[in-house]
Structures are given as structure tokens and as C-alpha cells.
Amino acid sequence: MTDLLAARSQMAMSLGFHIIFAMVGIAMPVLMVVAERRWQRTGDRIYLDLAHRWAKGTAILFAVGAVSGTVLSFELGLLWPTFMEHAGAVIGMPFSLEGFAFFTEAVFLGVYLYGWDRISRRAHLAAGWAVAVSGMLSGVFVVIANAWMNAPTGIRWVDGRAVDIDPIAAMMNPAAFPQVLHMTLAAYASTGLVVAGIHAWPLLRQPRNAFHRRALAVALLIGAPAAVLQPISGDLSARFVAHWQPAKLAAMEGQFKTERGAPLRIGGWPDEAAGETRYAIEIPYALSLLAFKDPHAEVKGLEAFPREHWPPVAIVHVAFQVMVALGSYLALVSAAALWLMWRRRDLTRHRWLLRALVLAAPMGFICTEAGWIVTEVGRQPWIIYGLMRTADAVTPMPGLVVPFLVFTALYCVLGVAVAWLLYQQVLKSPKATEEDPA
Amino acid sequence: MADLGPAELVAGIVLVALTAYVLLGGADFGGGVWDLLASGPRKREQRALIAEAIGPIWEANHVWLILVIVVLFTCFPVAFARLAIGLHIPLSLMLIGIVLRGSAFTFRSHYGHSGEHDDTAGTSQHWGRIFAIASVGTPVMLGLCVSALAAGTLRPPGRAGFYEAYVAPWLTPFGVGVGLLTLALFAFLAAVYLTVEAREWALQEDFRRRALGAAAAVLVTAFGTLGLALLGAPLMGRGLTTAPWAPALHLATGVAAVIAIWALWSRRFRLARVAAAAQVSLILWGWALAQYPYLIPPDLTIRAAAAPRITLVLSLWTLGLGTLVLFPSLIYLFRVFKPAPR
User: Fold this and answer.
1) Interface test with A, best of B63, B295, B324, B327 (most A CBs within 10 A)
2) Quick check: B100 and B130 in contact, CB under 8 A?
3) Number of folded domains that form chain B
4) Would B1 be classed as within a structural domain?
5) What is the pLDDT of residues A102-155, one digit of tens each?
6) Phi-psi category of A399—alpha, beta or left, where left has phi over 0 and alpha has psi -120 to 50?
7) Which residue is closest to B127 within chain A, CA to CA?
8) Contact A102 B106 (CB under 8 A)
9) What CA–CA distance (Å, rounded) separates B145 from B154?
């Protein structure tokens, strides 16, 4: 394993690990606050129990998210010092703002978790909202910084360094809005639907279980609308990529030849050596139409770019297919659930829906991981798109495979511990189970 | 002293944030040290008090470190890059400590609280052990990193061998001295704070004895480190002994230390807390003053490492506005969980 590959693997592993906790840290507080609000309004103790359990889950996941986020902020320098040397002054602004949002989140999470008996009910609920809002803002700012790597505005790049730096213009880069929207929705959709799926499972056997019924309803309220909106925001992201990163779009679609009226490929395996994508279902004109709103628009193929500027095509294409396929499934199931909820139907009478939700549980996270693979691997070989190559940004320290393996082992242990703890403390049914009347 | 511009102002803010991290986050690590060293008939109560004291606040306290790093890489990107290269190994070890300390503490806090699963007590103990051991190791790593800065051994990466470039700068007798001093300071702060937080007399006495012991450890490691600095980190040693401000600073630090010990002795715990915080801050500022105007001695000054002016100015605005949100929130947090005596 080369040092560059080890550094990229460590960064990918760290981001892939952290993103799960970050997403839960964004969306879980909303679930917990909605449950608490319902308890305050209805006096139904089951909602209070839910709020307590979700708060406990948030505490565990937020702690791991906070420390794994710290690791990332150091790894920016530990692995990519040359990148930070040149980009730090440009994208530091959103990171500073994120620092304060994160501060607010940590402060009010402390108040929320330990303050049940110390402050008024209103103050407690307000603290929960403060966690939810600042958690969302933290995510927004970090994604803005990442977006700049895809669309580096606010600088002039002269002789290998950034001059005429304008940090505000850098924050307003054209990737920022689509990426932020896509990621924020992903956080609510993935978290809401994983919780919904987890509670749908016991409802298959005990459809009247009051605890799981309420949990499912709150989780769907947060997750399902986001999942339904996600394809629209995905379209926005794809248009950005089509205009700003044509090589990434070509890799996503397995488009090797530049052509007018390009087809949309579903599935398939891109063969870089042969320069074609095999076994794909092709929908004529659809790619040109989706990317440029014109069925005859020209789509640049990978052949239009020098070979050394290609991202790893197969990885990007497959990850994109996985994201779109699973994301579409989530959107459909969510739309069905919302329709039934709007019609005031009892969801637990529709066993097919419960089953579909159980199946959907892990998909949001898989989608998000696949989406980040498309964004990050698709940007290669660049760390700052079109300006600085990843290979030129890596630390000169040799032996990087060692920290990669150490941190991977550490995160594996943490992952197992968190899963076990959540199962023990949050997901198990309460011992005394109430039943709702049929 | 040279004229002060935005670069020096931002550097000052980094120092203030670092001070906050040491006084607050450092004490949380110190709490872990006393968890490891819990002993005597009130072993359980000591551990419970520590957990109760740091539970609601450690995450907020931890963010000070993130603020330090973020401001550093935004406003002094060249310095950040050099630190991250030369200190890759101790920083990675410190991160492992941070990850283990934070997660283990949270895991332990959330085991067995549901009252339904009594079989998890053993697992809880394991996490407690990891929390305590990580709390000891992490401050030593932080100290080792600081020592490399202070000693001026972090050169730009050249053609030096692996050991010279990535190990030698921090693995020195002076480095070990600073590491142990950091550990002693954190343990000292924690013990002093815990005397205030303890509500029973016996528990208070436990931590009073520990605070006095830690004060002795601080004294020994501080003088030991100063001696090692004169031998191994001449730049720092000279700054700390011959600079015009040195006598005043040492006098102030000494006065704070004497007050802290006297207050502990005579059980004026709130006064001891203020004096201990002052003493630790002054030690930190002594280091900063001794290497001023260098950010990374012996060659990289604050001015030379600074980002373009626009970034510095925007960062100052961000920090100013952020503070408007942050300080009221922090005051609220500490009001709720660390109420003043009635």
C-alpha cells in the first residue's frame, strides 16, 4: 500500500465513520424534542420515555461523533498538510463558524441531558431545540467547506498558490447550496428511517405495542418527508456536477464518449481499458435531458479529458447507481407511508409497509456513504478541483499504513461497542409494555 | 515589543482559548487521573463525584481544543502544516487518547442506568478503566507536543531521516518533563475543583489531600522542566530566566502557587480554585511570552505564519460574533450545573 493510498484510506474511513454519527447528531435531537413536546402537550408518559431513550441514544452517538470529528479536524493537517497550508486561510471561515455552532450544540446537549430536574419544562424543551438547530448548522458549515474543494471560488491560483483570497466568495461557491441541501435532507431521511425501521420490526409481531407505535410515528414524521424531497435535491446536485465537474458526471454515468442525446445508464460495469460501459440498461436521451434540460444537449465523455484526470470510473459509477437505486426505494416507501398517514390509516395494519420499512432501515446510511464516495472519489485526482492534486497534498511522513490500521481497529471496536450499547439501552422494548386499543 | 496587528491579536485569542481548554478540559482529564487513583474507604464516592462533575460539561470543554485547531489552521496555516507534519506521531497518539477518553466515559455513564440490566456492571468497569487510563496518557502526549514547540526542534521537513524528522523533535528529556508537568497540572486543577464540588466533608478532605499532593508534584515537575529547559531547550530556558518580564512573571506565578497551597491548607476552597487557575494560566502564558514573537521557534514568527489580512479580519469578526453566542450559553451551562453556594 502506497503512502498516498494509506492516507486516502484513512481519510475515507474516518469520514465514513464520522458521517454516521454526525447525521444522527443532526436529526436525532429533532426526534427527541418532538417526543418531549408531545409528552408536554398530551401528558402521555410513553412519549416521555421515548424522549429519555432517544436522548440517551443521542448522548452516546454525539460523544462518538464529537471525538471522531476532532480526529478529522486534526487529520486535515496530519494527512494533507500541503492542502491545509494553501486552503486553510480560504476555507477556515466555515470551520470557525462550525466551531461555534458545535460549541452551542455541546453546551445545550449538556443542559438537555442532565437538566431534566434542574430547569423548567419550557427551558428544557428550548435547550433541545437549540441542540437541533445548532447541530444542523454545524453540518451546513462543514459541508460548505467541502463544497469549496469541488468548486474553488474566491481565489486566484497563481504559481501553485492561492492569491487574492476572498473567504466570503469561497463560502458562496456554487457547490455549497446543492451539497448542503442534499446532505441535510440525507441526515433527516437516514436517521428518521433507520429509527422507523427499527420500530417497525417489533410491530410486525405486536402491532398494538404502544411504545413502538409512537416511536414509528415520530420517526416517520422526520424521515419520510426528507426522503421524498431528496430526489429533487439530488437533481440539483447533478446539474451542478454537469456544469462544474463534467469529468465526475462522465464517471458517474459511465459515459466514455462525448455525444449529443446521451442515454441514462442504469447499472452496468464501466471498463476503463475498453472505454465502454457494459451490461447497462440505457434510456435514450435521458442523461442529456436530466443534466441539461435538453434531450439533444452534448454530454462530455471521459475521452474529452486527459487520462490522468479521470477519477476511478468503476467505483464512482457503481456508488452512484447504489445511491440512486436505494434512494429511490426510500422515496417510494416514504411516499406510501406519508399517504397512509395523511389518510389517517393505521400503518400497522399494512404489514407490507412495515416489512418495507424494516428493509429500508440501513439504506439511508448506505446511500449517504455511497453519495460521499461519488463526491470524494469522483473529485479525484484533485483535492482542490482543477488546482491541486491529492498526490501533491499528502504528508511527507512515511509509513502511513500504520496509523490507517490503528485508527481502523479503534473505530471497529467503537462501532461494535456503540451498536451493543444502543441495543441494550435504547432499542429494547420497555419491560412493562402497554397496548393501544385496537 | 513589536507593534501589534491582527496577527498578534488572533495569536492572543488562540492563547486565551488554549488557556480555557487547559483550565476546563484539562481538569476533566485530571478527573480521569483521580478516577484511576481512587482509593480508600470512599473509592466509589470519589468516582461518582468525578463523573457527576464532568458529565454535563466535558463536551463543551472539549470544544475549546477544536476552536484552537480551527483558528490555528485558518489564521496560521503554514504553522499548522508544519506542526501536523513534525508532530504526526504524538498528535495521533493524543487523538487516540481523546477518542478513548470521551467514548469510554460516555459508555460507562450509560451502562446500567436503566435498572433493567444488572449484568452490565462488569462491562461498565472496563470502560471506566479505559476512561481513566486514556485520561492519564492524553495530557502527557499534549505536553510532548508543546515541548517540541517550546524547544524549537520543529524544522521544516527536509532530507532528515525518519527518526530525526518525526521522533527526535518531541521525544526528549525536556519533552517528558513537559508531559509530566502537564499531567500534574491537570490533576492539580481537578483535585482543587473537586474540593469545591464535594458536598460531604470526608470527600472534600480526600480531594484536599490529593490537591496538596498534586501541588507538590507540580512544584517538582515545574522546576525539573525548567532545569531540563536550560539544558535541552536553550531558547525557552533563556526566555524564562533572562527576559525583562521573567522576574515579575515568576513572582506572580509563585504568589499564586503559595496562595493556592495556603488556601487548601486552611480549607478556603473557593479561593484555592481561583489561585490554582491563576497559577496554571501564568505557567501557560510564561511559555507563550518566552517564545514570542515566534509561533514555531526558532524561525517562524506569528507575523510570517499569518494568513492574508482579510482572513485575519474576518476571523476576528467571526470570533467576536461567536463569543456573543458562546459566552451567555457557557454561563448558563455552568449556572445550571455548578451553582454558587447559598
Assistant:
1) B63
2) yes
3) 1
4) no
5) 989 989 998 999 899 899 999 999 999 999 999 999 999 999 999 999 999 999
6) left
7) A417
8) no
9) 10
Bridge pairing between strands A388-389 and A382-384: antiparallel
- Rounded Cα distance between A216 and A195, Å, is 7
Half-sphere exposure of A432 (CA within 13 A, CB side): 3
AA letter at B104: A
**pLDDT (tens digit per residue) in B197-248:** 988 899 999 999 999 999 999 999 999 998 888 887 777 777 777 888 888 9
Look at residue B235 and give its three-state secondary structure. Answer: helix
Record the cell numbers describing residue A305, joined without a space: 479529458
Q: Taking the CB of residue A71, how many other CB atoms lie within 10 A of it?
A: 21
Q: Given this model, what pLDDT does residue B218 score?
A: 94
C-alpha distance from A242 to closest chain B C-alpha (Å): 31
- CB–CB of A306/A206 below 8 Å? no
- ipTM reported for the complex, 2 dp: 0.91
**Predicted confidence (pLDDT) at residue A177 exceeds the cutoff of 70:** yes
The domain spans of chain A are: 23-159+399-430
Q: Residue B95 in 3-state DSSP?
A: helix
Taking Cα atoms as reference points, which of A54, A2, A14 lies closest to residue A31? A54
In which element (H, E) is residue B274 found? Answer: helix B269-291
Rounded to the nearest angstrom, the minimum Cα separation between A72 and chain B is 10
- Adjacent-strand bridge partners of B320: none
Q: Is the pLDDT of residue B287 over 60?
A: yes
Taking the C-alpha atoms of residue A134 and residue A103, their distance in angstroms, rounded to an integer, is: 9
Contact A118 B336 (CB under 8 A): yes
CB-based contact A75:B81 (threshold 8 Å)? no
Q: pTM higher than 0.95, yes or no?
A: no
Residue B293 preceded by cis peptide, ω within 30: yes
- Quick one: cell of A191? 436517521
Name the DSSP class of B159.
S
pLDDT band at residue B124 under the 50/70/90 scheme: confident
pLDDT, residue A179, reads: 96
Kindly report which listed range (B17-26, B80-89, B229-238, B242-251) carries the lowest average pLDDT score.
B229-238
Give percent of chain A with pLDDT exceeding 90: 80
| DSSP H helices in A115-209 | 121-150, 167-171, 176-205
CA-closest candidate to residue A160, choices A417, A389, A395? A389
For A396, the grid coordinates are: 511527507
Residue span of the structural domain in which B272 resides: 6-337
**Distance, in angstroms, between A48 CA and closest chain B CA?**
14
Query: Which cell numbers in the block locate residue B175?
Result: 519533552
Look at strands A276-278 and A269-271 and give their pairing.
antiparallel
- The nearest alpha carbon in chain B to A63 belongs to B103
